[in-house]
Amino acid sequence: MHEQKSARQRLAGYAVLALVAGLMALGWRAAADTTAQADAPSPSQEVTTDDAAAITVADAADPAAVPVAPVIEDIAFVPAAVPQTFIGRRPEHQLQTYTVERGDTPNGIADKFGIQATTLLGGNPLLSQESSLLQTGVTLIILPIDGVLHDVQPGDTLESIAAQYSVPVETIIAYEANNLEFPFRLFPETQIMVPGAVRDVFVWTPPTLASVRSSREGSGVTPVIVGTGTYIYPVGSRSFSQYFWYGHPGIDIALPEGTAVVASDTGTVTFAGWNIYGFGNLIVVNHGNGYETFYAHLSGISVVPGQIVYQGNVIGSTGNTGNSSGPHIHFEIRANGVQDNPCFYVGGC
Ligand SMILES: [Zn+2]
User: Which of 9, 19, 142, 317 lies at a 20 to 30 A Cα distance from 27?
Assistant: First the structure.
């Protein structure tokens, strides 16, 4: 009984030893294999997950045992080299970038680089679609000259681009970094600088009165005057309690109740009264150029719908009415009914 157990134990002992030795060998090989792979420009790392199989193949002493696939080369479809084929050069733009800092405005950034504010949009098309992107920390592409950096689309020709931006073809060709030479091949997924162009989605120039679309709060009153197109703060304070972001389409400035509120620009008052959607006492001024300004949570209103107000005129006083947590003014600028970042217009925030 004792003998038997001992023999079995010995057998088990040998088995364990053999297993350990095997594992060690495997481990060593795997490590060596991994090291080799780390050095070589391995196309995939999946091999390491199948180490055992890899080792088995490597272990085969007879190289003939490893099947070697024949290399088939078929050049039947390779086009013949034609030295006359025009290949063209891709554009090589040297573009500066700028990271937006607190307090930056489009005009301020443009001034730093000696370009126009519209050129910021020329290099950063997303800005015009989502002006809240002009936030601290966002990196902008700064074009070296005024114009638009056009993303070449399939089907684009030099002529179509020139027509799109109403600039002469020669101007685009003359821009050196575009690397354009006859026959002016364009490459998709590259960018062509269009000097002097302005991205057409970006409208600084006020449209005519006829094109004004009023928002719901301002409906019913026809604007009778066109604003200056510039905007000032409705209050003197700069104690921002909330900035513009996708969840808050305006700016909040905290200040004591009863502080005078002025019209941000010249326009027609289209709404002055209680708003049931949380704005409390609200004034809406339509500037007759597609733009409206909203002044919310007021304690006092000193204008009536239809009244003309000029930039800087007192129109009411700040309060804490409606859906408001503490005395502040909620100020919005809407461009054709869409809330835009007021900081973009008034600067300084
Ligand atoms: Zn607000």
Answer: 9
Ligand 1 center to 273 CA (angstroms): 17
Label residues 247-261 b or e (16+ Cβ within 10 Å = b). eebbbbbebebebeb
Number of structural domains found in the chain:
3
- The residue segments making up the domain with residue 49 are 2-65
219 shares a domain with 187:
no
Listed range (135-144, 195-204, 277-286) with the worst mean pLDDT: 195-204
200 inside domain: no
Distance 337 CA to ligand 1 centre (A): 17
pTM beyond 0.90: the answer is no
Ligand 1 mean position to 204 CA, how many Å? 25
Q: Is residue 114 part of a domain?
A: yes
Q: Which of 236, 234, 240 is nearest to 253 (CA)?
A: 240
Percent of the chain with pLDDT over 70: 66
**Exposed e or buried b per residue across 92-118, where buried means at least 16 C-beta atoms within 10 angstroms of its C-beta:** ebeeeebebeeebbbeebbeeeebbbb
Which residue do the tokens 């490459």 mark? 187
Q: How many whole angstroms from 245 Cα to the centroid of ligand 1?
A: 10
26 - beta bridge partners? Answer: none
pLDDT tens for each residue of 299-344: 999 998 888 999 999 999 999 998 888 899 999 999 988 899 999 9
What is the predicted pLDDT for the residue at 163? 92
In the structure encoding, which two tokens stand for residue 50, read together? 């199948």
How many residues are present in the chain?
349
Please check whether residues 221 and 342 belong to one and the same domain. yes
Distance 252 CA to ligand 1 centre (A): 5
CA of 281 to the centre of ligand 1 (A): 13
Mean pLDDT, rounded, for 285-298: 94
Given 195, 222, 256, the domain boundary residue is 195
